[in-house]
Write a structure and sequence with these properties.
The chain starts with 6 loop residues before the first helix and ends with a helix. The strands form three sheets. An eight-stranded mixed β-barrel has the order 7-8-10-11-12-13-14-15, surrounded by four helices. A four-stranded antiparallel sheet has the order 2-3-1-6, sandwiched between helices. The chain has 492 residues and is of the alpha/beta class. The longest helix has 27 residues, at 181-207. Helix 1 packs parallel to helix 2 (33-56), helix 10 runs parallel beside helix 12 and helix 12 (320-330) runs parallel beside helix 14 (351-364). The protein has helices at residues 7-25, 33-56, 67-77, 90-96, 98-115, 140-154, 181-207, 212-224, 265-274, 278-298, 312-315, 320-330, 344-349, 351-364, 380-383, 395-398, 405-421, 433-441, 458-466, 469-475, 479-491; strands at 79-87, 121-126, 129-135, 158-160, 163-165, 169-177, 231-240, 245-257, 261-263, 305-309, 338-343, 367-373, 390-393, 424-428, 446-448. The protein is built from 21 helices and 15 strands. The model is unreliable at 49-56 and 198-210 (pLDDT under 50).
């Protein structure tokens, strides 16, 4: 049978409960148990209120202060330098895995905390935006240098669960002096939005909604391809039919991913361009091609010129000519062994700038080739402003040229134009002997295409050059037909 506790037992229970509350609050209350419990509960309520206030000033994803403590510090200092870092992939991640987006921010915030000096105030001011208050003693130039180093370090790979992510970050700084802190922060965020808007638009359409996960994963795999050693450079021979020899090669990037297998360039090159990887991949290709060309020279294959493609993004850089010169010097490669190749459309975007750059590059002794010629709809007056050494007839006009009268007219015009300008003309995409024969009869001496060879690994290309018998058989033509073709051109 249940026994009702005595008054003495109840008093002991109340005292024990009051003692437990004292231990929770870290206090030592005195008096009757009811008085002690009321005092302890008041302390607990005060602590909870303070904790709620503190948590409202900390961001749940990163544990960083929110914008209120940042603005308060800016008001107290009155002047200083404010920087904001934006993680460009955050919204794309959250579109298919919100928790992964939060984990990315948390990991990046931890890395950022470890890098920053203790006197810097770090705050989480918007969904994907972290702010750094450099304080009143920092100069704009010193803050810019520090921010550039931070942005570079934040781009290193992060291991989040089983996934490896290379974050994309962009930054902006402004000097603040007497400006309202809220206005200064809004201005910085607005400037950062303008600066990053183009790159976000470039990948945004495919990065959200259906297929967003695959789009993001594909881009991350491409970003990691270089560090994983998944890129390789292949070389498609360039053939001089008049000398019956291989005169060089075009360097072509190939990507083989462990899970995806061999990824076609038509899939990864547009992503490379849209995500700002063109310069990094382009410099890798230039250095690899220069290294391989130097190795071929050491084997006695000295009379070769390697064509390396340059993108529009690379062409926008002011230091491209300097980077090319440094690469040649690094590999002890003579300029005559290198050819820079870019499409007609890229060259025409800013003709004046391209003309200056071409002059700088050709002054070194490096040749310039215009690729995909005939597809850019350039005027002859514009082309005359550019100094280049070779034009490549686009494969669109080479395919079935022996059967198509429209392609024949275009090819004959380009060949005549090149002859008038005193430059070489090369037909790319030659896949059938009939195409080669027609072009050869009509004055084209330089060729590239699967009819002669597919793109080859560096060692296989060297073997192709060293064993010209197979090439000679493909170049063989009826000498009388060739002589007749030459006579007809001379009399035209």
């Amino acid at each position: 049978m249940w026994k009702r506790p005595s008054s003495t037992e109840r008093a002991a229970d109340w005292r024990a409960l009051a003692d437990r509350l004292d231990r929770l609050t870290g206090s030592a209350t005195e008096g009757r148990p009811s008085v002690r419990m009321e005092a302890a509960i008041s302390l607990l309520e005060l602590g909870a209120a303070n904790a709620g206030q503190r948590s409202s000033r900390r961001h749940s994803a990163t544990g960083m202060p929110t914008r209120e403590p940042l603005l308060q510090q800016m008001r107290e200092d009155g002047r200083g330098v404010l920087g904001v870092i934006r993680f460009l992939d955050f919204d794309r991640l959250c579109a298919f895995d919100p928790s992964l987006g939060d984990r990315l921010l948390h990991a990046a915030a931890e890395r950022l905390r470890a890098m920053l000096q203790t006197q810097r105030l770090l705050a989480h001011v918007d969904r994907a935006d972290l702010a750094i208050w450099f304080g009143p003693d920092a100069t704009e130039s010193s803050a810019l240098s520090e921010m550039e180093a931070i942005e570079y370090a934040l781009g290193e790979a992060l291991e989040i669960g089983e996934r490896t992510i290379l974050p994309k970050a962009s930054s902006q700084i402004i000097a603040v002096s007497g400006e309202d802190p809220t206005t200064a922060l809004a201005r910085t965020l607005a400037q950062l939005t303008i600066a990053t808007n183009a790159s976000c638009q470039a990948v945004g359409a495919d990065g959200l909604g259906v297929g967003g996960r695959e789009s993001f994963t594909f881009e991350q795999d491409l970003r990691l391809a270089m560090s994983r050693g998944e890129l390789r450079l292949c070389y498609q021979p360039l053939v001089d039919a008049s000398a019956a020899r291989t005169c060089g090669a075009e360097a072509l990037i190939r990507w083989h991913n462990g899970k995806r297998g061999s990824v076609p360039p038509t899939m990864f090159v547009p992503v490379m361009e849209a995500t700002g990887l063109a310069h990094e991949f382009g410099m890798w290709a230039l250095n690899t091609a220069a290294r391989d060309a130097r190795a071929w020279q050491a084997k006695g294959l000295a009379d070769l010129r390697i064509a390396v493609n340059v993108s529009g993004h690379q062409l926008e850089r002011n230091d491209l000519a300097t980077l090319i010169e440094r690469t040649l010097n690094r590999h002890s490669l003579p300029p005559s062994a290198l050819e820079i190749e870019l499409t007609e459309g890229v060259a025409m975007v800013d003709c004046e700038r391209a003309a200056r750059l071409f002059s700088e590059i050709r002054a070194m002794g490096v040749a310039i080739a215009i690729d995909d010629f005939g597809t850019g709809y350039s005027s002859l007056s514009t082309l005359r402003k550019l100094a280049f050494d070779k034009i490549k007839i686009d494969r669109e006009f080479v395919t079935d040229v022996d059967r198509r009268t429209d392609s024949q007219a275009i090819c004959q015009s380009i060949i005549a134009l090149a002859r008038g300008l005193g430059i070489r003309v090369l037909a790319e995409g030659v896949e059938r002997p009939e195409e080669y024969h027609w072009l050869r009869l009509h004055g084209c001496n330089f060729f590239q295409g699967f009819y002669f060879s597919p793109p080859l690994e560096a060692s296989a290309f060297a073997a192709f050059v060293e064993n010209p018998e197979g090439l000679s058989a493909k170049l063989a033509m009826d000498s009388r037909a060739l002589q007749q073709g030459i006579s007809e051109r001379l009399s035209a």
